[in-house]
Specification:
Largest sheet: 2 strands, antiparallel
Bound molecules: zinc ion
Strand order of the largest sheet: 1-2
Helix content: 55-70%
Radius of gyration: 18 Å
Order of helices and strands: HHHHHHHHEE
């Protein structure tokens, strides 16, 4: 969980997008994940101690799951590549991004920030063995999961 937050907080483009004046004006709910993230970014800017308490609260509120195993994720050693932890981290990221986009959607129209930053498209092509006819369909999603093998 910390690794995911660290990665997001070091993403320059993510920071820029969150600080869009339109968003800052529109998403005003103080207990929102959006505000929590903006708060953490601002604290960092001013070299203050970063305490993602509100951030963790926001995430925990939307994802009951992470209340229970937060500890476990947090204290896993960086070299630990247990599949369950990787899965947890991925689910956590998706949950976080979904929540954020939902908050943005609720406050302002046409601000697809998350798909713009993290989205990908998969093109499926199915070819009939008998007549060679092909059909394709596009699938859009966020947060592609990749297996990283141990060296
Ligand atoms: Zn056919």
């Amino acid at each position: 969980m910390n690794a995911i937050l660290q990665a997001l907080l070091n993403m320059h483009k993510f920071k820029i997008k969150l600080h869009d004046p339109k968003l800052l004006q529109s998403v005003t709910e103080p207990k929102s994940l959006y505000r929590a993230l903006v708060g953490v970014f601002n604290e960092r800017e001013n070299w203050e101690m970063v305490s993602p308490t509100l951030l963790k609260e926001c995430v925990a509120a939307t994802s009951q799951k992470f209340r229970g195993n937060e500890q476990q994720v947090q204290f896993a050693s960086p070299s630990c590549s247990s599949p369950t932890l990787q899965q947890d981290a991925h689910e956590f990221l998706i949950e976080l991004l979904d929540t954020l986009q939902a908050e943005i959607d609720a406050a302002i129209k046409d601000q697809s920030i998350i798909p713009g930053l993290f989205g990908y498209e998969v093109l499926h092509t199915i070819r009939c063995n008998a007549c060679d006819e092909e059909s394709t369909n596009k699938e859009c999603s966020i947060g592609m999961s990749l297996d990283i093998q141990d060296r």
